[in-house]
Amino acid sequence: MGLDDGGKAHASWFGEAETDLAEKAAGMMGMAALRASTDELRDLAGKLPQGRVFSSGKAFVPFVKATMFDKIAEHLPRSYVWPIRPVKPATNDRLPTGKTKKASGTGAPESGPRRPEALRPTDWDKIEPGSLVLATEGTYQGWFEAQVVKISPEGVYTLRWRDWLDVPVFTRRLIHIALLHPEHTD
């Protein structure tokens, strides 16, 4: 199981004869391998599509719904960092991916990935670096919040997913992004 470069969830099951190969492939692909050692894990694995290991050593691991991915991820050892891919140290062109504390409505601290504070433009002309917009990976992939990192003179917008800070930045043209509704709240 793991996330692709676009932050999409992938998970599959492999037969007992492919266990060692699947574990090696997971390591090569930056994914996690988890043996179905309990009834609950076997039940979850039965709901996944079957994966395939290729002679190259890599594997085909199909998309799964985020809810299924999250259920399985709960069984990973605590040593795994969310998302599954190892978090790279922050550099000047990346936001830190550590945990931050913020006050909740009850006054108790919460922890979770840092979300960049962003401007919420109400007009296309007001989009600037730091603005929060919507972007998609493609048809039928859904729209998710992304922060504008840079705007090139050619009209290419460099974006970073708001909720998947370890996923590399990506580019879109203005016609491929959307504005949030002015009354949208998190």
Automatic annotation (TrEMBL):
Task: Tell me the protein's name.
Answer: Uncharacterized protein
What organism does the record attribute this protein to?
A: Mesorhizobium sanjuanii
Query: Where on the tree of life does the source sit, at the highest rank?
Result: Bacteria
Segments carrying the region annotation (Disordered) are: 90-124
Record field: compositional bias (Basic and acidic residues):
112-124
